[in-house]
Amino acid sequence: MAITPYLYAIAIGSNRRHHRHGRPTGVVAAAVAELDAAFRLFDASPIMLNPAIGGAGREFANAVALVESTLKPLAMLAAVKAIERAFGRRPGKRWASRVLDLDLIAWSNGRFESRTLTIPHPRLASRDFVLGPLTAIAPDWAMIGALTPRHLAARLGKRSPRG
After folding, report:
1. d(Cα 124, Cα 64) in Å, to the nearest integer?
2. Terminal alpha carbon distance of the chain
3. pLDDT tens track, the chain, 163 positions
4. 3-class SS at 27?
5. How many domains does the chain have?
6. Which of 12, 34, 14, 35 minimizes the C-alpha distance to 23?
7. Fewest CB within 10 A of the end CB: N or C in the chain?
């Protein structure tokens, strides 16, 4: 009996050079390729450049990938964190610069909550650097109740000085 795969939206970000993949845009492109190799890439947004928030320093390259996987959320989290480590990500202070950041922002089964993971991502509605790429590839996916990336981006645009 075949197991029906889940669809995951994974936010991808980088603002540090990588010894092999180069600039952050190259890191994000390589991460999309790695997600395709590890899972089944359904779609990926264009790579967008965004100002850093907090103490992260340089601007970020961001994208969102939609992948299919039979892994449940905690196993999927472990798999994407392993990809981060393979790219040289090391634990560090929050909001610091990073070679690669992968966040599970949504999955096809709606809400998931554990001690270490909440889906949809708790700050999804306030992050234009995630909503922009997500809206480019999945504008009508219900994320928070009936709210879609398109709705969330429009709401954020009304509140945001960058909007």
Report:
1. 12
2. 48
3. 678 899 999 999 998 877 888 789 999 999 999 999 999 999 999 999 987 666 556 788 999 999 999 999 999 999 999 999 999 877 665 555 678 999 999 999 989 999 999 999 888 888 888 999 999 999 999 988 888 899 898 888 776 554 3
4. helix
5. 1
6. 14
7. N
Separation of alpha carbons 56 and 60, rounded Å: 9
- C-beta of residue 151 within 8 angstroms of C-beta of residue 158: no
Q: Mention every residue, 6+ apart, whose C-beta is less than 8 A from residue 97.
A: 15, 16, 52, 56, 57, 58
Residue 83: inside a domain, yes or no? Answer: yes
Lookup result for tokens 């790579």? 47
In a domain, 153, yes or no: yes
CATH of residue 66's domain is 3.30.70.560
Whether residue 1 is contained in a domain is answered as: no
> Is 92 part of a structural domain of the chain?
yes
Provide the token pair at 158: 């009304």
